[in-house]
UniProtKB/TrEMBL annotation:
Record protein name field: 3-ketoacyl-ACP reductase
Domain of life, source organism: Bacteria
Pfam family, one: adh_short_C2
InterPro entries to which the protein is assigned, alphabetical: NAD(P)-bd_dom_sf (IPR036291), SDR_fam (IPR002347)
Length: 264
Protein backbone atom coordinates (compact mmCIF):
# COMPACT_ATOMS: atom_id res chain seq x y z
CA UNK A 1 0.00 0.00 0.00
CA UNK A 2 1.38 3.46 -0.92
CA UNK A 3 2.37 5.60 2.05
CA UNK A 4 -0.60 7.61 3.32
CA UNK A 5 -1.47 10.12 6.02
CA UNK A 6 -4.09 8.75 8.42
CA UNK A 7 -6.10 10.82 10.92
CA UNK A 8 -7.42 9.03 14.03
CA UNK A 9 -10.13 11.16 15.60
CA UNK A 10 -9.97 9.71 19.13
CA UNK A 11 -6.50 8.34 19.74
CA UNK A 12 -7.32 8.03 23.46
CA UNK A 13 -10.24 5.63 22.95
CA UNK A 14 -10.24 1.84 23.40
CA UNK A 15 -9.73 1.38 19.67
CA UNK A 16 -6.97 3.98 19.35
CA UNK A 17 -4.08 1.78 20.47
CA UNK A 18 -4.87 -0.97 17.98
CA UNK A 19 -5.42 1.43 15.09
CA UNK A 20 -2.18 3.26 15.82
CA UNK A 21 -0.18 0.04 15.96
CA UNK A 22 -1.65 -1.43 12.76
CA UNK A 23 -1.33 1.66 10.60
CA UNK A 24 2.14 2.44 11.91
CA UNK A 25 3.28 -1.10 11.14
CA UNK A 26 1.71 -0.68 7.71
CA UNK A 27 3.95 2.27 6.95
CA UNK A 28 1.44 5.08 7.38
CA UNK A 29 2.05 8.54 8.82
CA UNK A 30 -0.36 9.40 11.61
CA UNK A 31 -2.24 12.35 13.03
CA UNK A 32 -3.46 11.45 16.51
CA UNK A 33 -6.14 13.67 17.98
CA UNK A 34 -5.99 13.45 21.75
CA UNK A 35 -7.22 14.98 24.98
CA UNK A 36 -4.06 13.90 26.78
CA UNK A 37 -0.91 15.93 27.28
CA UNK A 38 1.84 15.42 24.71
CA UNK A 39 4.03 13.81 27.39
CA UNK A 40 1.62 10.87 27.56
CA UNK A 41 2.49 9.95 23.97
CA UNK A 42 6.28 9.57 24.29
CA UNK A 43 6.30 5.74 24.20
CA UNK A 44 3.84 5.62 21.31
CA UNK A 45 5.83 8.17 19.34
CA UNK A 46 9.03 6.19 19.91
CA UNK A 47 7.36 2.98 18.74
CA UNK A 48 5.96 4.65 15.62
CA UNK A 49 9.34 6.15 14.85
CA UNK A 50 10.88 2.68 15.02
CA UNK A 51 8.30 1.56 12.46
CA UNK A 52 9.25 4.46 10.22
CA UNK A 53 6.05 6.45 10.76
CA UNK A 54 5.89 10.18 11.22
CA UNK A 55 3.39 11.21 13.90
CA UNK A 56 1.69 14.47 14.75
CA UNK A 57 -0.30 14.69 18.01
CA UNK A 58 -3.11 17.26 17.85
CA UNK A 59 -5.73 18.48 20.31
CA UNK A 60 -8.45 19.80 18.04
CA UNK A 61 -12.03 20.31 19.18
CA UNK A 62 -13.78 18.03 16.71
CA UNK A 63 -16.98 20.06 17.06
CA UNK A 64 -15.28 23.27 15.95
CA UNK A 65 -14.82 23.94 12.25
CA UNK A 66 -12.22 26.58 13.10
CA UNK A 67 -10.19 24.12 15.20
CA UNK A 68 -10.39 21.45 12.54
CA UNK A 69 -9.34 23.83 9.79
CA UNK A 70 -6.33 25.03 11.79
CA UNK A 71 -5.36 21.45 12.61
CA UNK A 72 -5.58 20.40 8.97
CA UNK A 73 -3.43 23.36 7.91
CA UNK A 74 -0.80 22.30 10.46
CA UNK A 75 -1.01 18.66 9.40
CA UNK A 76 -0.69 19.44 5.70
CA UNK A 77 2.37 21.60 6.34
CA UNK A 78 4.00 18.87 8.45
CA UNK A 79 2.91 15.59 6.89
CA UNK A 80 0.88 16.37 3.79
CA UNK A 81 -2.84 16.09 2.99
CA UNK A 82 -4.89 13.56 4.94
CA UNK A 83 -5.70 10.49 2.87
CA UNK A 84 -7.71 8.50 5.43
CA UNK A 85 -10.00 9.90 8.12
CA UNK A 86 -10.90 7.39 10.84
CA UNK A 87 -13.70 8.56 13.10
CA UNK A 88 -13.69 6.27 16.13
CA UNK A 89 -15.46 8.42 18.74
CA UNK A 90 -17.67 6.07 20.77
CA UNK A 91 -18.36 7.73 24.12
CA UNK A 92 -20.77 5.63 26.21
CA UNK A 93 -22.75 6.54 29.30
CA UNK A 94 -25.60 4.58 30.95
CA UNK A 95 -28.79 6.46 30.11
CA UNK A 96 -32.29 5.06 29.70
CA UNK A 97 -34.95 6.72 27.57
CA UNK A 98 -37.08 7.60 30.58
CA UNK A 99 -34.35 8.89 32.90
CA UNK A 100 -31.61 10.39 30.72
CA UNK A 101 -30.79 13.97 31.67
CA UNK A 102 -30.41 16.53 28.91
CA UNK A 103 -26.71 17.31 29.61
CA UNK A 104 -25.82 13.60 29.32
CA UNK A 105 -27.73 13.22 26.06
CA UNK A 106 -26.19 16.36 24.57
CA UNK A 107 -22.65 15.35 25.57
CA UNK A 108 -22.90 11.89 24.00
CA UNK A 109 -24.45 13.24 20.81
CA UNK A 110 -21.78 15.91 20.55
CA UNK A 111 -18.82 13.63 21.19
CA UNK A 112 -20.02 10.90 18.83
CA UNK A 113 -22.37 12.35 16.21
CA UNK A 114 -21.64 16.07 16.04
CA UNK A 115 -17.90 15.39 15.84
CA UNK A 116 -18.55 13.00 12.95
CA UNK A 117 -20.52 15.68 11.10
CA UNK A 118 -17.86 18.38 11.53
CA UNK A 119 -15.07 15.97 10.54
CA UNK A 120 -17.02 14.93 7.45
CA UNK A 121 -17.41 18.55 6.39
CA UNK A 122 -13.84 19.63 7.13
CA UNK A 123 -12.05 16.64 5.62
CA UNK A 124 -14.59 16.17 2.84
CA UNK A 125 -14.08 19.64 1.40
CA UNK A 126 -10.33 19.19 1.14
CA UNK A 127 -10.54 15.66 -0.19
CA UNK A 128 -13.11 16.72 -2.78
CA UNK A 129 -10.71 19.36 -4.08
CA UNK A 130 -8.09 16.62 -4.58
CA UNK A 131 -10.74 14.13 -5.76
CA UNK A 132 -9.23 11.54 -3.50
CA UNK A 133 -9.77 10.31 0.06
CA UNK A 134 -11.21 7.71 2.35
CA UNK A 135 -13.52 7.89 5.37
CA UNK A 136 -13.82 5.04 7.87
CA UNK A 137 -16.38 5.34 10.65
CA UNK A 138 -15.59 2.87 13.43
CA UNK A 139 -19.00 2.47 15.02
CA UNK A 140 -21.10 -0.20 16.65
CA UNK A 141 -23.80 -2.81 16.09
CA UNK A 142 -25.88 -0.56 18.33
CA UNK A 143 -26.48 1.76 15.42
CA UNK A 144 -29.30 -0.71 14.70
CA UNK A 145 -29.67 -2.87 17.84
CA UNK A 146 -30.89 -1.26 21.11
CA UNK A 147 -28.71 -1.74 24.17
CA UNK A 148 -31.50 -1.48 26.73
CA UNK A 149 -29.15 0.63 28.84
CA UNK A 150 -27.44 3.39 26.84
CA UNK A 151 -29.98 4.83 24.44
CA UNK A 152 -28.06 8.07 23.81
CA UNK A 153 -25.10 6.00 22.64
CA UNK A 154 -27.32 3.97 20.30
CA UNK A 155 -28.94 7.14 18.97
CA UNK A 156 -25.55 8.70 18.28
CA UNK A 157 -24.34 5.60 16.44
CA UNK A 158 -27.51 5.52 14.35
CA UNK A 159 -26.94 9.16 13.43
CA UNK A 160 -23.34 8.46 12.40
CA UNK A 161 -24.45 5.51 10.27
CA UNK A 162 -26.90 7.64 8.27
CA UNK A 163 -24.36 10.48 8.05
CA UNK A 164 -21.93 8.00 6.49
CA UNK A 165 -24.56 6.91 3.95
CA UNK A 166 -25.28 10.49 2.95
CA UNK A 167 -21.56 11.27 2.75
CA UNK A 168 -20.90 8.19 0.60
CA UNK A 169 -23.60 9.33 -1.85
CA UNK A 170 -22.26 12.89 -2.12
CA UNK A 171 -18.50 12.44 -1.74
CA UNK A 172 -18.44 9.33 -3.90
CA UNK A 173 -18.87 11.62 -6.91
CA UNK A 174 -15.38 12.96 -6.15
CA UNK A 175 -13.73 9.56 -5.86
CA UNK A 176 -13.97 9.50 -2.04
CA UNK A 177 -15.04 6.31 -0.30
CA UNK A 178 -17.04 6.28 2.95
CA UNK A 179 -17.58 3.05 4.88
CA UNK A 180 -18.69 2.05 8.38
CA UNK A 181 -17.50 -0.73 10.68
CA UNK A 182 -20.19 -1.90 13.11
CA UNK A 183 -18.17 -3.42 15.94
CA UNK A 184 -19.77 -6.15 18.03
CA UNK A 185 -19.08 -7.40 21.56
CA UNK A 186 -15.62 -7.24 23.06
CA UNK A 187 -14.35 -8.17 26.51
CA UNK A 188 -16.22 -6.21 29.18
CA UNK A 189 -19.23 -5.35 27.00
CA UNK A 190 -21.56 -7.03 29.51
CA UNK A 191 -20.51 -4.47 32.13
CA UNK A 192 -20.68 -1.50 29.78
CA UNK A 193 -24.16 -2.44 28.57
CA UNK A 194 -25.55 -3.95 31.76
CA UNK A 195 -29.32 -3.70 31.54
CA UNK A 196 -32.34 -4.51 33.68
CA UNK A 197 -34.47 -4.35 30.53
CA UNK A 198 -32.57 -6.46 28.00
CA UNK A 199 -30.85 -9.84 28.28
CA UNK A 200 -28.77 -9.22 25.16
CA UNK A 201 -25.48 -9.38 27.04
CA UNK A 202 -26.35 -12.24 29.38
CA UNK A 203 -23.78 -14.97 28.61
CA UNK A 204 -22.94 -12.83 25.61
CA UNK A 205 -19.70 -14.52 24.60
CA UNK A 206 -21.63 -17.74 23.91
CA UNK A 207 -24.07 -15.92 21.66
CA UNK A 208 -21.19 -15.55 19.22
CA UNK A 209 -21.37 -18.83 17.24
CA UNK A 210 -17.65 -19.51 17.69
CA UNK A 211 -17.85 -18.40 21.36
CA UNK A 212 -15.02 -15.97 20.68
CA UNK A 213 -15.20 -12.24 21.32
CA UNK A 214 -13.81 -9.62 19.00
CA UNK A 215 -10.70 -7.58 19.78
CA UNK A 216 -9.35 -4.19 18.88
CA UNK A 217 -6.96 -5.99 16.51
CA UNK A 218 -9.93 -7.30 14.53
CA UNK A 219 -11.18 -3.74 14.15
CA UNK A 220 -7.74 -2.43 13.20
CA UNK A 221 -7.21 -5.11 10.54
CA UNK A 222 -10.54 -4.36 8.90
CA UNK A 223 -9.88 -0.61 9.00
CA UNK A 224 -6.49 -1.19 7.38
CA UNK A 225 -8.16 -3.20 4.62
CA UNK A 226 -10.75 -0.47 4.03
CA UNK A 227 -7.95 2.09 3.78
CA UNK A 228 -6.23 0.13 1.01
CA UNK A 229 -6.69 -0.19 -2.71
CA UNK A 230 -7.97 -3.79 -2.38
CA UNK A 231 -11.27 -2.36 -1.12
CA UNK A 232 -11.43 0.23 -3.89
CA UNK A 233 -15.02 -0.59 -4.93
CA UNK A 234 -16.43 -0.48 -1.40
CA UNK A 235 -18.40 2.68 -0.78
CA UNK A 236 -21.39 3.24 1.48
CA UNK A 237 -20.97 -0.19 3.11
CA UNK A 238 -21.89 -1.10 6.70
CA UNK A 239 -19.65 -4.00 7.69
CA UNK A 240 -20.86 -5.84 10.78
CA UNK A 241 -17.84 -7.10 12.71
CA UNK A 242 -19.54 -9.13 15.43
CA UNK A 243 -18.70 -12.77 14.79
CA UNK A 244 -22.38 -13.48 14.14
CA UNK A 245 -23.53 -12.15 17.52
CA UNK A 246 -26.69 -10.48 16.20
CA UNK A 247 -27.76 -13.68 14.46
CA UNK A 248 -28.30 -15.42 17.82
CA UNK A 249 -31.90 -16.12 18.81
CA UNK A 250 -32.10 -19.28 20.98
CA UNK A 251 -30.38 -19.12 24.37
CA UNK A 252 -30.72 -22.84 25.03
CA UNK A 253 -28.67 -23.50 21.88
CA UNK A 254 -25.72 -21.36 22.97
CA UNK A 255 -22.27 -22.78 22.35
CA UNK A 256 -21.36 -23.05 26.04
CA UNK A 257 -18.59 -25.33 27.32
CA UNK A 258 -19.87 -28.59 28.76
CA UNK A 259 -19.52 -29.21 32.47
CA UNK A 260 -15.85 -29.46 33.39
CA UNK A 261 -14.70 -28.27 29.95
CA UNK A 262 -12.49 -25.22 29.66
CA UNK A 263 -12.19 -23.08 26.55
CA UNK A 264 -9.45 -20.64 25.67
Amino acid sequence: MPRKVVFIADADSWSGEGLIARFSQGGMDLILNSRQDDGEWEKVLASCKTSGSKVLVTHADLCSSRDLSAMLDEAENGLGPVDVMIHNCCAIRPASVESCEEPDFVEIMQRNAKSAFFCTQAFGKRMAERRSGNFIFAGSIHSEKPTGSSFAYSASQGAVKMLAHEAALFLGRFGIRVNTIEMGPVEGADLVFHSHLSGLYDDYRYKVPAAKLGTVNDLAELAFFLAGEQSGYLNGADIRLDGGFLLHYMDHRMNKPSEGETRL
